[in-house]
Amino acid sequence: MSYPPPIYRSDTGEASAWLRPADAAPELQSVNTQVHYLATGDTTGGLFGLYRYEMSAARSGPDPHFHKTMAESFFVLRGTLRLHDGTGWRDLGEGDFAHVPPGGIHGFRNESGEPVSMLLHFAPGAPRESYFEAVAEVARGERTLSPEEWTELYRRHDQYMV
Predict the structure, then answer these.
(1) CA 50, CA 44: separation in Å to the nearest integer?
(2) Using an 8 Å Cβ cutoff, are 111 and 72 in contact?
(3) What is the pLDDT, as a whole number, of residue 154?
(4) Cα(162)–Cα(155) distance, rounded to whole angstroms?
(5) Residue 79 pLDDT more than 90?
(6) How far is Cα 2 from Cα 86, in angstroms, rounded to an integer?
(7) Which of 13, 16, 44, 48 has the most CB atoms within 10 Å of its CB?
(8) For 10-28, what is the mean pLDDT?
(9) Cα(155)–Cα(152) distance, rounded to whole angstroms?
(10) Are 47 and 124 in contact (CB under 8 A)?
(11) CB–CB of 118/76 below 8 Å?
């Protein structure tokens, strides 16, 4: 395997780093989940998306599904996350990592009765924020979706339920 072609073409570097403090407020507040948009596909030029996903002690999380256009990775910061790996549900604890390539069946949820905090990474950087926000609106009771509307929401956001 070799390095990909250059994205940056100048022979000198530039001051272009950006920072996000740990105490920044979450961009998304749902009923049982807070999501911090650490790096979106938009802010990384489509390279990746990185989110700190904090789940309350209540049971929550998506059922098994797959994506056609992106890989998804999980790194557990705190608590016990249940992850479906395509063959069954597995417990991931603090420091555990899982990677799901495009097409890989996966799901995740909190069934532990304790809060869970994890990093959620997508590559390339798809616009997942609008998906998270639509699901949060439903969870907060701000909107309802028919089965056909759920199917369309999933299709529009590269989410294929199993």
Answers:
(1) 10
(2) no
(3) 97
(4) 13
(5) yes
(6) 30
(7) 48
(8) 95
(9) 5
(10) yes
(11) yes
Provide the token pair at 42: 């938009």
Residue 56, Cα to own-chain centre: how many angstroms? 16
Between CA 135 and CA 29 the distance in angstroms is: 11
- Res. 1: pLDDT tops 90: no
DSSP assignment of 132-154: HHHHHHHHTTS----HHHHHHHH
What torsion, rounded to 10 degrees, do the Cα atoms 19, 24, 26, 27 define?
Answer: -60
* Contact in structure between 66 and 162 (CB atoms under 8 Å): yes
Query: What integer is the mean pLDDT of 53-76?
Result: 96
- Reference 85, options 68, 60, 66; nearest CA is 66
Q: What is the pLDDT of residues 119-149, one digit of tens each?
A: 999 999 999 999 999 999 999 999 999 999 9
Q: In the predicted model, is pLDDT for residue 9 greater than 90?
A: yes
Q: Round the CA-based radius of gyration of the chain to a whole number and report it.
A: 17
